[in-house]
From TrEMBL:
A molecular function (GO) term: potassium ion binding
Recorded superkingdom: Bacteria
Chain coiled-coil ranges: none
UniProtKB keywords: ATP-binding, Glycolysis, Kinase, Magnesium, Metal-binding, Nucleotide-binding, Pyruvate, Transferase
Organism from which the protein derives: Nitrosococcus wardiae
Protein name: Pyruvate kinase
Top-level EC class: transferase
Catalytic reactions on record: pyruvate + ATP = phosphoenolpyruvate + ADP + H(+)
Amino acid sequence: MTSGNPKRASNTLFSPFRFEKNPRACRIVCTIGPSSQSSTILEKMLLSGMNVARLNFSHGNQKSHGEIAHEIRKTAQRLMKPIAILQDLQGHKVRVGNVQHPPSICLNEGQEILLGHGETVSNKRIGIDYQDISHSVTPGQHVFLDDGSIELEVLSTQGDDLHCQVNLGGELHSRKGVIFPDSHLSFPLLNEKDEKDAHFGVSLNVDMVAMSFVRSATEIIEMRLRLAAWGKKDSFIVAKIEDRKGIDNLDEILHVADAVLIARGDLGVTLPREKVPGIQKTIIQKANTFGVPVITATQMLESMIYHDKPTRAEVNDVYSAVIGGSDAVMLSGETASGRYPLHAVREMDRICREAEKELRNFKGEIPVRGRQDMHDKMAASAVNLARNTKARCILAFSLSGATLKALSAARSNVPVYGIVVEEQVLRQLLLHWGHSLITMPHEEKLEDLIGPALRQLQEQGIVRTNDRIVVMASEAEPGAKETYLFKLYLLK
Ligand SMILES: Nc1ncnc2c1ncn2[C@@H]1O[C@H](COP(=O)(O)OP(=O)(O)O)[C@@H](O)[C@H]1O
Ligand SMILES: C=C(OP(=O)(O)O)C(=O)O
């Protein structure tokens, strides 16, 4: 998306974007796949509230993802709506190959089958993308396929293959995940597929990269270095927390990641399912404390893969995830391969908005959150000032995005309208709770931007005569390392 070199007319704001009149604070991430990759559906999903499009590189190939990314950018540009592209790398996750006769094979309870390195899945042998599996797994151990919906038991090893029996049957589709909960598999720091895909992602100029099964901060640092070497200096890395190692090292991961994703699908297989809600709560609380955006993911509206309405339990799950502190909620199969991708986005949007009403009722003082640095202190003060003066909204200017990130961590319950210069900065804020964002060209003096921004808020009917507005920014002033600025406007 580009601003198309807009002409500057006096008193007008030259931005390719418009503020949202009734912005939703919680972000919606949608996985794009066969059900949603056409420009018609993408357009409707964007208009229905999708903020981030997730391309899962465990499926499809570089060519197909490149085409989808292009279609997303084209659609966003046509609609003048910002959208971020999140590239999800396969990471340290074993996957089955492609089903020989699509769409799936049926595995029946009691059936015996071989499992070993290979690219094809048939009724006799399941190929997986891990070599030497027979050295890591012993008879009696279990194998879970497709987030645990299918369970195998290892009977013996046969050469390099495992001879298994199906304990829990089901339909197995191409590229589904494989978990060996009792075994220690070895993986390099970054695998070859991830490196190739991430390099390709740089050429697509994706906005964010998600790393699967993150175990340590080192992996993230290493990936950031590679991305920088390939030309992506301002990378945004999402750490997917999927197993015990990710949970144990959460603090160090939160120090270096730009966001975390609670991968409940794999968490519920690598650990007992009943522990997932408690783990979700802990990850959200920690991420909120660090001021790092957190995405709650997987099976949120799962039944909508086949139905046009969710179950009451699913509605409750999304609502609770928002109330609990998620910055974003994610749709997976619902939008990638389900029958009702649009219904799912609209449903998600409605539930988030309803939950936010409850959050807006919070009457207490907003505490300083996040890393508690100067930006966080100023953000909490701005929200409290806006609350105490009954301001209609906060208008925040940010070059690097830091002011807006802090306002997001503060969980402002006064609407925040944000102005940044770079579109990339804007798109990378689309996983952060809470703002409606537009870009404006850089001006030497902030004063030159405030007037047009206020006018746009007025023209769009977001603010009216006699409304109070808190303006917030940080700037460099002569003689001061950093100056933080608050202004309270009473509109004429
Ligand atoms: N690019 C794609 N091409 C084909 N199918 C896809 C694609 N992306 C996602 N899907 C389908 O949507 C399902 C749900 O998406 P996701 O949660 O990302 O995958 P998974 O559960 O396999 O990790 C996938 O299992 C797959 O069947
Ligand atoms: C989001 C998840 O990861 P993926 O879709 O890559 O398997 C998950 O396991 O919940």
